[in-house]
Amino acid sequence: MNTMVKVKNEKHMLQFYMMTQDKEAYLIERLNSDHIGDDAAVVGKSLYSVDAFYEDIHFRRAWMSPYQIARKAMLVNFSDAIAMNAYPRYALLSLCIPKEILREEIDALMRGFEETAAAFDCEIIGGDTVGGEKLHISVTIISHSDAPLYRKGLKEGDLLAYTGTLGESKRDLERLLSGKKIADDSKFIEPQLRTEFVYRARPLLHVGMDISDGLYCDTNKLLDINKYGYKILENINDEMGSSGEEYEMLIGFAKGDYKEIKTIADSLDLPLTVFAETANNSERFPCQSHHFT
Prior knowledge:
Layout: H1 10-20, H2 23-29, E1 41-43, E2 46-54, H3 66-83, E3 87-98, H4 103-119, E4 123-132, E5 136-144, E6 159-163, H5 168-177, H6 195-201, E7 207-210, H7 215-226, E8 229-232, H8 238-241, E9 249-253, H9 258-267, E10 272-279
Parallel strand pairs: 3-4
Antiparallel strand pairs: 1-2, 2-5, 3-5, 6-9, 6-10, 7-9, 8-10
């Protein structure tokens, strides 16, 4: 569950909701836990995360094979753990299975779950199934980390950067919606997780999160929780800034560590773009929530 900045009281909560018109943010504000605020909840050295992957909301069966659907469901969940410098250990699956689904399709789903989990040394240890009209998947991941990477920890003057390239997921979703085909290795179908980069760069990073709601919205979350604004260093167009489900890393770090972090990225042949500097202002990127719309 993505989290937003916590608000002070019921009146402030209502004002916040009316301003953002974001029912997800409103729902999260109804919860009361100190563990809320990051890609996963940290309890001791264990991290707990859960993400839903629902037919006709996150995917259509006409777009992806059962194997691809299961694989992406696992990858987007592993992304939460990896973004926090955690190692996935166990997974629980909850499935709503359509009555018309074939046994060979169930077999393909299970191969997708199991092979993807095995690639990350993660064991599927149980879950639940129900029958329904559509294919809905919910995955819970239990991870381990000795040094979690949080969203809170930015300092004034820190650089904000993202890995990889942005815009492909939005572009290919628009192609699918218009009835066109996309490549099987599109990031919309096959997210590219930056596992090695996070694990190696962690000692130099102040904050980090994966880009699931778009660079604009996710940067705003970082700024909100750290109570800073930004100064733009590299212009980002709307096609890049509003492209969700990229699962690249959004990171913040001290200027003096840029060269070392860039060296790590270069060694992995991974583009790294510094686009802003943390500043003591209230600047925010234009962000329209895609949740519940």
